[in-house]
Amino acid sequence: MHLWARVQVAGGSSTIVGRVSRGACSGTETASRHALRLDTTSDDLGATPGYAAYLVPIADFGRRVAQRRAAEVVVGIPPELEYLADGDVVRVSPSGAELRVLYRRNSPSNALLLTEQCNSYCVMCSQPPRARRDRHLVEEALQAIPLMSKDTVELGITGGEPTLLHEDLLRVLRLARDLLPKTSLHLLTNGRLFAYLEYARLVADVQHHDLMLGIPLYSDIPSRHDAVVQARGAYDQTIRGLLNLARFGQRLEIRVVISSLTCDRLPELSRFIARNLPFAQHVALMGLELTGHTRMQLGALWADPVDYGSALLQAARTLDRAGMRVSIYNYQLCTIPRDAWRFARRSISDWKNTYLPICDTCAEQSECGGFFASSGARISRGVAAQVKVPHVRQS
User: Is the per-residue pLDDT at 119 higher than 60?
Assistant: First the structure.
């Protein structure tokens, strides 16, 4: 599924953030925050004035442009964005001739990118940081949140490193708290700036009703963790950050992305977490996403799950026996030990999730997490269709 595409745009010069609507809205003020979706049989633009933008099939773009008034923005969308539905939120950039989908109302996999800057440089980062001014991403998030459905179950906050935004991150958290009272927030952060007790307190003071901070820890050995994130002292900052957040009662998820650099010490890391960080609400043992930095260094980072499956199972069991909630993310069931299946989750975001032809005959496909769309660069030798065998999943 595409969340971005080049589009044809007529009119306007400023970036537009609007909620997609397939039917006419009542009231000029309401319409001005919407992007009206028109098909080839819809009424002329003149019948529906005042919208922030008009989204039309690319084949109908020329006709619709001829109807537009001077202030109206007409956007010709390609076939890959035809799925846009009521309640989705999009950003249209007339100057860049592009449309980006910021939020899909019917998706469980929504996330807001707040910055591409980061104070780490992880060797397997799926979205490598970029040192550029991108404060516009915060402003777009602040415009998008009021347009989201109040029934949204979960919303991710990601980067880059969101804590580098300092007060701007707090603004986003407060707005989500106030306007999305039923929505849980999942903030992905390296946790390093929470080594400063005051910043941990400021996030706690937001008093969001359901905030989880996902923080990576790659090894029980400081030098190994620092080597993975390519930042000296990062391990000490991360541990201190976790402790400070726990001091203020924040809900924490420890995320362990597994590569050839770390898979050999999974059992030791799990024991370290169980003994020293038992306050974490969740531990996620995660397979690589083969994009970004990982794709550029695949030979050095890839390890077949078949080869470290026993260590993965041992780690999950250790955490489970310690009373911690543990999940295995981003793995195909056929590539990990069957006893580990009860910890496995369908974790890959719906827009980048796929399956191979061999999966069509697998009895476990409905339970399996499948593949990242980028996984074609390296497939485990363990991939094979499975025969249905009853198994118990963790609640």
Answer: yes
